């Protein structure tokens, strides 16, 4: 288990403001980035996605998908809006993962308010699979409140009931229930809001990397094998980690407290982006930051992230007006 240090002073010393035309530099070392002011805004400089509590993924063509309360928005890398899917069955997707299967790209999503996991065609948003509460589990649960979803190489699907039972459900690729694991609590092998999750491809064999967001002391990452067995606490003291995204040996970990940490393969923090030292104690206020109060290079309620093939990051804040940002890695 690694107790991580943020090295805030070093990171903050590398945040420079050059004005809105040139953006802001944030991070440190090999993980230093420039923000792209106005990315994804309309011709009037307004957010196009509306209130959001969601995720970001990128397809093989480089297009960026972000989920908002009213649906799915797809942007080109330059920030131009390519298409939208404003429809009830893809509303309020809390987490997404994208996967190519036999030459077709599909998005898997956790819809916590709808109580389901879904799989849909990335281009058309046509739903091809729906996962609800499996009665075969024998659990006394009325409805799921899923917050995260991921997929193994063989197609097995993992759906985390992060806002509900604090259990993770495993299904096969056709949606048949296989098992569940996890108990609520703050013990070593217990979950306290398993909020985010992905397949950690940095290790062989692959394993689950889980954001145990509210675990005390608050915030840790866990490794479990694909059969639901505890491996280790990968990182701790991260403070409200919301989701995880892998590229190569690195993982990006947004924090609801307004920052994004980048960890290396040893799960040590190597860079902190967007650090916000002035959030206040009212968690709801982190969401209610209006667009006119956004600060370039400073995050609020950071919720989702994804890497493109060039190592740039796309980041979504949990935000009333809908904030998605592009950060370009400096090389």
**Topology as H/E string?**
HEEEEEEEEEEEEEEEEEEEEEEEHEEE
Shape: globular
User: Mean pLDDT, rounded to whole units?
Assistant: 94
Read across the widest sheet, the strand sequence of neighbours is: 1-2-3-26-25-24
Please characterize this protein's 3D structure:
The protein has 331 residues and is mostly beta strands. It has one domain (49-285): TolB, C-terminal domain (Neuraminidase, 6 Propeller). The chain has 2 helices and 26 strands. Strands 1-2-3-26-25-24 form a 6-stranded antiparallel sheet. A 4-stranded antiparallel sheet has the order 4-5-6-7, with no helix packed on it. Strand 8 (95-101) and strand 9 (104-111) form a beta hairpin.
Brief summary of the model shown:
With 331 residues, the protein is mainly beta.
List the helices and strands and how they pair.
Layout lengths: L7 H6 L2 E2 L6 E5 L2 E5 L20 E3 L5 E5 L2 E5 L5 E5 L9 E7 L2 E8 L4 E6 L5 E5 L16 E4 L5 E4 L7 E4 L5 E5 L12 E7 L6 E6 L7 E5 L5 E7 L8 E3 L2 E6 L3 E5 L5 E5 L9 H5 L14 E6 L5 E5 L5 E7 L2
Antiparallel strand pairs: 1-2, 2-3, 3-26, 4-5, 5-6, 6-7, 8-9, 9-10, 10-11, 12-13, 13-14, 14-15, 16-17, 17-18, 18-19, 20-21, 21-22, 22-23, 24-25, 25-26
């Amino acid at each position: 288990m690694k107790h991580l240090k943020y090295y805030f002073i070093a990171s903050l010393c590398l945040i420079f403001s050059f004005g809105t035309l040139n953006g802001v530099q944030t991070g440190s070392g090999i993980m230093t980035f420039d923000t792209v002011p106005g990315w994804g805004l309309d011709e009037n400089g307004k957010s196009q996605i509306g209130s959001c509590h969601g995720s970001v993924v990128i397809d093989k063509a480089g297009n960026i998908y972000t989920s908002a309360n009213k649906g799915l928005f797809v942007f080109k890398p330059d920030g131009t809006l390519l298409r939208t899917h404003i429809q009830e069955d893809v509303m309020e997707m809390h987490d997404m993962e994208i996967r190519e299967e036999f030459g077709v790209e599909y998005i898997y999503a956790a819809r916590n308010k709808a109580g389901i996991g879904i799989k849909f065609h990335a281009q058309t948003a046509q739903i091809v699979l729906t996962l609800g509460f499996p009665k075969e589990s024998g659990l006394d649960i009325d409805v799921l409140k899923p917050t995260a979803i991921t997929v193994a190489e063989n197609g097995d699907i993992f759906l985390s009931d992060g806002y509900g039972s604090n259990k993770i459900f495993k299904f096969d690729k056709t949606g048949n229930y296989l098992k569940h694991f996890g108990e609520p609590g703050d013990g070593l092998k217990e979950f306290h809001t398993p909020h985010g999750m992905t397949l950690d491809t940095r290790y062989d064999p692959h394993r689950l990397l889980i954001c145990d967001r509210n675990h005390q002391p608050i915030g840790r990452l866990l490794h479990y094998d694909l059969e639901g067995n505890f491996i280790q606490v990968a990182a701790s003291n991260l403070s409200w980690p919301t989701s995880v995204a892998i590229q190569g040996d690195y993982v990006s970990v947004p924090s609801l407290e307004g920052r994004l940490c980048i960890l290396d393969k040893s799960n040590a923090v190597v860079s902190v982006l967007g650090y916000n030292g002035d959030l206040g104690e009212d968690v709801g206020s982190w969401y209610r930051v209006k667009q006119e109060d956004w600060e370039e290079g400073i995050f609020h309620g950071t919720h989702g992230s994804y890497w493109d093939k060039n190592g740039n990051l796309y980041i979504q804040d949990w935000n009333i007006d809908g904030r998605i940002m592009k950060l370009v890695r400096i090389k």
